[in-house]
Amino acid sequence: xxxxxxxxxxxxxxxxxxxxxxxxxxxxxxAALREAIASRLKQETPRETAQRILARRGLSxxxxxxxxxxxxxxxxxxxxxxx
Length: 83
Prior knowledge:
- This protein has 83 residues and is mainly alpha-helical.
- 66% of the residues lie in helices and 0% in strands.
- The longest helix has 18 residues, at 25-42.
- The N and C termini lie far apart (54 Å).
- The mean pLDDT is 87.
């Protein structure tokens, strides 16, 4: 399998990372992609963000709270658009 980098900036960054790490360009690209994927997987979900913000204020979601149905967001969008 080959990966061709046709973007000048991407090529420069890949080579710079390879030089910093003392690896090949391929290994640098693989490492960078792994790090990016791991970082994104560690990010909070919107629910986790809401829980963290509520906790700072001594609040929390009600127990057994059910999520809103998708139709609620559809209706809300239409109400906001008409204002």
